[in-house]
Amino acid sequence: MLTISQxxxxxxxxxxxxxxxxxxxxxxxxxxxxxxxxLYSSADLERTERIMLYRQIGLSLAEIRAVLSASPCDFRAxxxxxxxxxxxxxxxxxxxxxxxxxxxxxxxxxxxxxxxxKRGWVAILRASGMSxxxxxxxxxxxxxxxxxxxxxxxxxxxxxxxxxxxxREWSRA
Length: 173
Description:
Strand content: under 5%
CATH class of the largest domain: Mainly Alpha
Number of domains: 2
CATH architecture of the largest domain: Orthogonal Bundle
Number of helices: 9
Mean pLDDT: 87
Helix content: 55-70%
Structural class: mainly alpha
Number of strands: 3
CATH topology of the largest domain: Multidrug-efflux Transporter Regulator, Chain: A, Domain 2
Radius of gyration: 26 Å
């Protein structure tokens, strides 16, 4: 049996967090000492591990409580909903990222110059001695190692979506 402080140290959470979880019924202790201290069993340790995992994937405490008492079917449905929510959030963030990149490519009211475009980038690569074949290998490696960053980079050069799709397609081939 572990005390609340030992459990808190083991999982790297504040003691007050565990007290709150007890208060809301998420993690009640299995026993009390003669001095009325909370004591946690190995089953409580396993429950804490699951709570920590579910917190890492972004479930709310109410969702965690539901998961811990849910059937496997309900658990799967909850995870499916969480995954769908994450996909929506990522889509929103990706669109925000694209909008910011587009804003950075345009001239500001203060007269700043736009960022480097495709023509300027290719000129720099050629001036540094890269052949067409070497530039193609560069794209292939960029796509292989960081496909999202490759997409973002190509967009930052002001390349149209159709051309980006073609570049990424042959880079993957």
